Amino acid sequence: MKFEAETIVTVQFYDLDPMNVVWHGNYIKYLETARCDLLAKIGYTYDNMAHDRVMYPVATMELKYIKPCKFQQKLKIISTLEEIEPGMVIKYTIFDAQTGEKLFKAKTMQICVSTVTKESLYSAPDGLKEKLACCKL
């Protein structure tokens, strides 16, 4: 089961560090932007999660910095939903949108947690499963 989405972001001035490259912590912001876009394209947003009384906090994150990103650079982020049970696993690759050069890659694992009991759930909510079924994965 895989679902892939492409997201384009432009490096902003406020993302840079004193060396005029993207500060390492801002890549996490780019991952969140791509994750929100991926979920929107599936049709399962944070509002849907709230309706299903679940949340998906990040449990683990693997990051690999390959080459620095610079001011006004257009980045293409490919995010791939790999698994939804027992947790949501998403892989990300960031490329220069013009040259196709690979700049960064990452993987996150998020655990489904009940907003009512605050306990971990090891199966995805029916709402997410239904949206993915409609995507014909």
Features:
elongated; Thiol Ester Dehydrase, Chain A; alpha+beta; seven-stranded antiparallel sheet; single chain; 137 residues
Written description of the protein model:
With 137 residues, the chain is α+β, with helices and mostly antiparallel strands. The model has no long low-confidence stretch (mean pLDDT 95). Strands 1, 2, 3, 4, 5, 6 and 7 form a 7-stranded antiparallel sheet that branches. The longest helix has 17 residues, at 26-42. It has helices at 26-42, 46-51, 126-134, and strands at 3-10, 54-55, 58-65, 74-83, 87-96, 102-114, 120-121. It is built from 3 helices and 7 strands. It has a single domain (3-134), classed as Thiol Ester Dehydrase, Chain A (Roll), CATH 3.10.129.10.
